[in-house]
Write a structure and sequence with these properties.
231 residues, alpha/beta
Length: 231
């Protein structure tokens, strides 16, 4: 594949054996861990945990990343789409409250193949850094019930400085609007998020204006009760 899945538009060749692009990954999925995760956002965890698949690689270069060996290193095991689908079923068999796909963007094709046309019994969660292309997200319509994006930056300078993506906000705000178009207002059942957009923001030291820009954009774009935020 000549990859243009994310805003980097790198045009790098990625195949089953060739790694390329900012993500540094092949076209087939690579995952570092699949597990029941009790420390995900509370509304996704349930009694036994979120069924997380931690994909390797990332299209951002955040200097504060807590999963740097996974996102920017060589940690991870190569999978087939068929094996990924089996892992989804195994997590559901362990009573996962959701299928939590962590940084999956650069493996969109394989994730779609693994999800197939099956109606999964728990929400599928697209857990991403927010640096997404709306046209890639449109391919997920009907396959993803919950979008869990970061909205890291409202200013270009900290986005460039800390994540190497000065155009982050331009893409992230369009991406989040597309996510909301697909899911509509969030919906809870028995304390768990079943559908909607859950926006995260990390307050960075010395970057209060960045946080104000993020909060202002969310307030201007969504009426109260439309999107939700981690508590």
């Amino acid at each position: 594949m000549i990859c243009r899945l994310c805003p980097r538009n790198c045009g790098e060749e990625r195949t089953e054996t060739r790694r390329g692009g900012v993500c540094g990954m092949p076209s087939v999925p690579v995952a570092a861990r699949a597990m029941l995760h009790l420390w995900e956002e509370p509304c996704l965890v349930g009694e036994r945990g979120a069924g997380c698949v931690f994909f390797s690689g990332c299209n951002l270069r955040c200097c504060f990343c807590q999963n740097k060996p996974i996102s920017q290193g060589e940690v991870g095991k190569v999978l087939t789409a068929e094996r990924l689908r089996e892992i989804f079923h195994e997590l559901i068999g362990q009573e996962a409250a959701c299928l939590d796909l962590v940084t999956p963007t650069h493996f969109t094709d394989a994730v779609l193949e693994a999800l197939g046309d099956e109606e999964w019994p728990v929400p599928v969660v697209w857990n991403c850094g927010g640096y997404e292309k709306p046209e890639t997200l449109r391919r997920l319509e009907g396959k993803v019930q919950v979008y869990l994006p970061d909205l890291k930056y409202g200013l270009s300078e900290p986005a460039r400085k800390y994540s190497g993506a000065a155009d982050y906000f331009d893409w992230a705000k369009r991406a989040i609007l597309e996510m909301f178009r697909q899911t509509g207002p969030y919906r809870m059942e028995n304390g768990l998020l079943k559908q909607g957009v859950l926006i995260r923001h990390l307050l960075l030291p010395g970057e209060l204006e960045n946080t104000r820009r993020v909060i202002d954009w969310v307030a201007e774009s969504f009426r109260p009760g439309r999107c939700c935020f981690p508590s």
